[in-house]
Amino acid sequence: AQSVAQPEDQVNVAEGNPLTVKCTYSVSGNPYLFWYVQYPNRGLQFLLKYITGDNLVKGSYGFEAEFNKSQTSFHLKKPSALVSDSALYFCAVRDIGAGNNRKLIWGLGTSLAVNP
Amino acid sequence: EPEVTQTPSHQVTQMGQEVILRCVPISNHLYFYWYRQILGQKVEFLVSFYNNEISEKSEIFDDQFSVERPDGSNFTLKIRSTKLEDSAMYFCASSESKGRDGYTFGSGTRLTVV
After folding, report:
1. pLDDT of residue A98
2. pLDDT at residue A97 above 70?
3. C-alpha angle B76/B79/B80, rounded to 5°?
């Protein structure tokens, strides 16, 4: 069965330092991978996706993620964190099922706190 | 940029009452979804919908839940008899293809059952 793991409940980083939010996945076949961000009391905002092609994907707000097939990982990164990046981050993989089942399978989320 | 619109943003209802959550997906999208999230926790899949029928539903999506696309633009989630544990944020999403182009989420409806 397809699954996504975000091994860290919380990540703390100082403003200006690089940040990494980890995600690993388990899926048969080629994965479609996504990162979403959720600010307090807000909806789910798309950050970036990997479908195919270049393993380094660039997304919104200066975020990027690296797809690593051998390690089955899709870690989210940013070179220099901002206090405003503090939010809940979700990794998700598209389900690969028969027919038209194309739901997203979600990680549990990682709370990122950027300290000034 | 096209958006998925959800109404209302917040609904308070008494236990046992019926609620209808409304969504207007992006107009050229063909695949529609409902997810829920309890108190900033994990996002849970409820149901997917394509070609005017349910493609898949989760264990959460029991007989109390139903979805409908009544007029070609709206996509609704109905909960017939709400329970306290239905209190959550409900997100509607749509996609053009089978996810290759991504999924667009609405801003959610916060349902509070009292």
Report:
1. 61
2. no
3. 125
